[in-house]
Design a protein that fits this description.
Elements lengths: L2 H11 L6 E6 L3 E6 L7 H5 L6 E5 L2 E5 L4 H13 L8 H10 L4 H13 L3 H20 L7 H15 L1 H13 L3 H10 L9 E2 L2 E2 L6 H22 L2 H56 L1 H7 L6 H11 L4 H5 L2 H15 L3 H15 L4 H11 L1 H19 L21 H22 L6
Helix pairs in contact: 1-3, 4-5, 5-8, 6-7, 8-9, 8-10, 9-10, 9-11, 10-11, 11-18, 15-16, 15-17, 15-18, 15-19, 16-17, 17-18, 18-19
Amino acid sequence: MEYKDIAEVIVKYVGGKENIASIATCMTRIRVDVKDFSKAEIDKLKNIDSVNGVQSSGKYIQIILGPGKVNKVLKEILSLTGLQEADYDAESLKNEYKEKNATPFKLLLKKIASIFIPILPAIIACGLVMGINNIVMKISPDYAASAIGQIMAAIGNAAFSVLPIFVGVTTSKVFGGSLFLGGTLASLMTLPALSNIVLFGKSLTPGRGGIIAVLLVVIFASWLEKKLHEIVPDIFDTFLTPLLTILIAGLIALFVLQPIGGWLSDVITQGVKLALDRGGMLAGAVFSISWLPLVMTGLHHSIIPLHAELIETVGYTPLLPIFAMVGPGQIGAVIYVYTKTKSERLKKVILSGIPVQIMGIGEPLIYGVTLPLLRPFIAACLSAGVGGALSVKLSLHSIGMGLSGFPLTLMLNKPVIYIGIMLLVGVISFFLAKLLGFDDEV
């Protein structure tokens, strides 16, 4: 189907353009807020050619098309209906999840995701530069000392050197504070001059608590600023509220929240190390097997600050290659499905979903193939567990975050071994899917 044709049938089956309250996209799906859910024909939406899956809850319908295609179809829908794309910012997501009776914990995870997602392009770009630079240094030992090598190293470190400030700015945005007050407080906690200050007999440590401390401080500062806006007279609000916010939050940060953040950071980093050291391959297998179910429930957002904290404190995250093993797990399972299914539509979903999964985006295959068929989903999870176990055994880790699948190779300490494990996982998943079978009628 042409993009215009897909757009026309989507509009028809959501109840017509008069039934659309708002419409927007994310990376892989179109999100439609309908006025009257009873007018939508969900089963017919699922059967549209090129639609990989449909999720609905309350008055919200999410139509999964895959990256690239989703933007072209949306463009046709907007042209057809005369609507404007809605802005799915943090507040919109908050209201959406409230209406769906989300728990406070899930709302918090959505806010955490909203903090880190805007920063990911910078982290990905710099991480890739750093990875490419490391590869060249291994090939040419003299490269590191050269001017271009040093310039590339500086570019690669650029985003990571100011990551706490980025987090401070986006946290303020999500929690309703002034963006640059958040960035200023994050900067305060990383100032080298802190090491010259002695409190309670100990010198302060710049960057103590890392990302965790920044989150605590800026969330508190955003709350404080909003309270001050309520009580400070309008005539003084412009200068007195930011002044009091910086002074009060800054002092509480250094005396209370940064030490607490430091303790939490130690608990998190040591906890991950302990789990992998003591649990070894079993821990890696459990982490990897659980990743797809976490993605389904939205709980995977809770891992984002964990990656950031590990990179900030120890310089790498061992969890990313473990979780990435679900990709080849899915690919192996759907290749088996492709060889056996009689459904031409399912074959199209698989052929369009595999390249996307190779690039680290799994939703089209999750919602379009493995999850509806269930047993291939189980095969993908179990085979990923083998990859997670081997990742721990062979000490794989990533110097950046935001990438998965094959592109993650450039951020890893052992890229060739990573590719070998991925191929093995894919083969295991194929035969597991063959052993478990699937119901082609589904």
